[in-house]
Structures are given as structure tokens and as C-alpha cells.
Amino acid sequence: MNYIGSKFKLSSFIKDTICSIVGQNLSDKIFCDLFAGTGIIGRIFKKDVKKVISNDIEYYSYVLNKNYIENHRYFDVSNLLDMLNNLPLIEDGFIYKNYCLGSGSNRQYFTDENGQKIDAIRRQIEVWFKNKIINGNVYYSLLVSLIESADKVANTASVYGAFLKNIKKTAAKKIFLEPALFEINDNSHEVYNEDSNKLIKQISGDILYLDPPYNERQYGANYHLLNTVAKYDNFIPKGKTGLRKYFRSNYCTKNNVLKSFQDIIEDAKFKYIFLSYNNEGLMSLDDIKSVMKRYGKYNVVKCKYQRFKSDKTENRNHKAFFTYEYLHILDKKYNHFQ
């Protein structure tokens, strides 16, 4: 997925740095990804650690990680995907009625056909689950296939804060579900859908990885439609973009971010804490250093990388530019949480 703040390009840098501090053998370690997003970092540690604890307040993220992190034993969904891909279209579904132009919604997040197909698939998955034809593992795997496939044909510039006036080339393609393949191993893992500052008081482990929002962009607003596909609940979409009620993170507000961050560091029952944060964030380098060094041995490393930024005058034009990702490191003193 094209995801704000994705660590896919930085995953090797992050893993290499963590292993250089903690050690190469992580087989007895519990790794926590507290702001998991699409779960990229949890996924790269999944096969190496004793357990991954994955969490995110956004429900679509929870669904993604229920599949990619919690699912760890093989099962075959190919026949189910074939049935879903061949379902007839329906015209009375929530996505079509509220997010497609042909329904009269005045919104164009999907073509009419794709919106009707998303509704048909989402309903069928829910029927199978409620009738116990599929279990929870398969349920979340199929939901992830739908979420990721819907994202590929969404008529947006990248996020769901707005839709495009004209159907772009990728959005004109017919939605097609593919398997959401996950790493298979013998260990069980835990996935949560909680406020990170509350969950941190209830869990413990060895390695805590933090990747909170950097700026004022609220993920609940930017990815509201993925939450709607995932939850498939009934509500009245608001405004031109069809927003739903969404969680507003303290990490996206200048007045609250530092206190929230300090609380997590204070409450964390983990020896090693790693924070990903770039040079454009609401917290300064000095802010982060000041908080973390109170609790143990602090260090920081950085990585220069290229990412893309949409041009304000034309979404199809992109400008490449460089930014720095900082990985802040804390070896926390045990007497702070024993």
C-alpha cells in the first residue's frame, strides 16, 4: 500500500540498527510494534523473535496485522478468493451508495462497478464468518485481500482526504482479490486495537519500537474509507469527502505530543526502546533527547533517504526530495520499571 510514513524503504536500516544494539539472535525476545500501521516492521521481525506484539488504534491497521502478524500457520484461501472474485454486482451496498458517482452521492472514490463489487465481496465475507463457514484467521485474511485490492483501484492521489474529479488509469481497472500472504512460523503473536498510551501500561517485553505520527495529518481522516471497508458499519458520511468519526491522536497536535511521548517512555516495561522520527516532526531532536536520556543510555542514528511529494498544482507530477529518518535509541534502566 502507498502509505504515509511507511517504513518499507527503511526496514533494512531499522532492523540492522536494532540488531546491532540488541544482538543478532532474537529468538528469546518479545518485540512490540506499538504504532504498527501496515505492520512492515513487525513483519520483518516476526520470523526472528519469540513473539511480536502489534498495535494500532486504526481498525484497518488492526485487520492488516491480524493477518500479517497474528496469522502464522498455513491455510489455503484460493477457492474462497475465486468465489469472491466471481460474485455478481449489487447496487444497494454502502460503498456504492456513498462513495461512487453513479449512486448520486457526488463522490467518486471508486468506479461504480468497483464500488458495487466491493460491497458484494464485503457482504459475503461477513456472511461466511457469521455462519461459521470460515474462522477468524481466514476472515481477517480475506478482509486484508479486499482492503489492499480496493486501495489499488481507489480514485485518489494517495490518501482518502479527497477523491479525484476524473477517474485515473489505475482506478479504472476492475478490482481483483489476491491472497494476502503472511510469514509462517511456529510462534504465536498478539495484535491489539488500542490507544498506545493505554496499552503500554498492560504489556512488557524486550524491544519496543515506536513509530508515532510525525505531523498534524490524522490517519483516521486520511484513511477513513479503509476503516469503512474494514468495519462495514452503518453511519451517515459527513461532508464532501464522506468522513466518518475518527480518532484524533495526541501525536498529531503540537500541544500534546511531548507529554504523550514522555508518558509512553515512562510507562514502558521494555529494556530497549527505538523511536523512528524524521526531521520534519512536531517534536524536535532536542525534545526527544531530553525525554529519553532521563531513563537510561541514549543514542541516535540517522539515515538519508529519498521519498516523493505530490506537487500542489498537479497530483500526477511528483518531486523527489531527500529527508532524514532518525532512529532514537534508549537502553532503559531496569530500576525504572521493576
Keywords:
7 strands, 338 residues, 34% helix, Rossmann fold, single chain, 18% strand, 7-stranded mixed beta sheet, 2 domains
Mean pLDDT: 94
H and E order = HEHEHHHHHEHEHHHEHEE
Radius of gyration: 21 Å
| Total beta-strand segments | 7
Q: Kindly estimate the percentage of residues that lie in beta strands according to DSSP.
A: 15-25%
The first-to-last residue Cα distance is 40 Å
The CATH class of the largest domain is Alpha Beta
Helix content: 25-40%
CATH architecture of the largest domain: 3-Layer(aba) Sandwich
Instruction: Name the quaternary structure.
Output: single chain
| CATH fold category name of the largest domain | Rossmann fold
What's the name of the CATH homologous superfamily of the largest domain?
Answer: Vaccinia Virus protein VP39
Structural class: alpha/beta
Shape: globular
Low-confidence stretches: 310-319
How would a crystallographer describe the biggest sheet? 7 strands, mixed
* Largest sheet: spatial strand order: 3-2-1-4-5-7-6
Notes on the structure:
With 338 residues, this protein is α/β, with parallel strands linked by helices. α3 packs across α7 (136-152), α3 (59-70) packs across α10 (224-231) and α6 (112-130) packs antiparallel against α7. The protein has helices at residues 11-22, 40-46, 59-70, 78-85, 94-99, 112-130, 136-152, 196-199, 219-222, 224-231, 257-267, 285-292, and strands at 30-33, 51-55, 190-192, 205-210, 270-278, 296-311, 314-332. It has 12 helices and 7 strands. The chain has a 7-stranded mixed sheet with strand order 3-2-1-4-5-7-6. It folds into 2 domains: 13-57 and 188-213 and 250-338, Rossmann fold (3-Layer(aba) Sandwich); 73-181 and 216-248, no CATH class.
